[in-house]
Amino acid sequence: MLRGCTRYYVARVDITHDSNIQVDRHGVEVLDAEAVEQRALQTIRAFDSVLVAAPRSIPVEEFVRQLADDRVLEYEPSADLGNVLGRCWFSTPRIEINRALEGPWRRFVLAHELGHFTLHRHLKVLRRDYVEDYTRTIREGVLPTPPAHEWMEWQANRFAAALLVPFPTMVIVAQEALEETRLMAGPRRRWQIADYIAATFDVGKTVARRRLDELDVLAKKWTQQRPTPVDH
Ligand SMILES: [Zn+2]
What we know:
Order of helices and strands: HHHEEEHEHHHHH
Bound molecules: zinc ion
Oligomer: single chain
Number of strands: 4
Helix content: 40-55%
Distance between the termini: 60 Å
Structural class: alpha+beta
Radius of gyration: 19 Å
């Protein structure tokens, strides 16, 4: 069902060699939220553009297995990692996921590691050849402004959220949910809409609520619906 990953791989190589990309002193690309959103959409479209046309759960596990089948990376889906949730190796690309993880949390951790692979695998400045993630580095509800030392983690978390809940299809779900919940008011309505998003995209409620905050879809909609004062 999935198309090959050739475009994905080539796109990444092109970006690595693009001298217009600004990098920080560690060689990490300086990407704002919008740029990370675009990178996540690029990744999804490289596998199957249908996935950003109609709302559905993004098959991140299939993405990574496809990359492994194409020998772009190695994938260990059931690693014995103790309290480490996931790991991404760079020079010999490899993603490892803790065997104890399951459900939406597992999907988020895997998307986070795919974020490191997509955004950071060219890095050679690390003391180790891999990044290792714990519950403190993987946050479903990411901070909008990261401290400098958490910059890479912010990027990977933002990538994961954007990959699992793509903006174009999230807008569709949010609009449907607005209609479904029109008799509700206040926070209850917002949580209900987040629940629709969580169920459609198979993500945790924290991710769904954060996506609503990030993309401001509802705020815009509600502003449009609010009665405007009459001019005199
Ligand atoms: Zn990480």
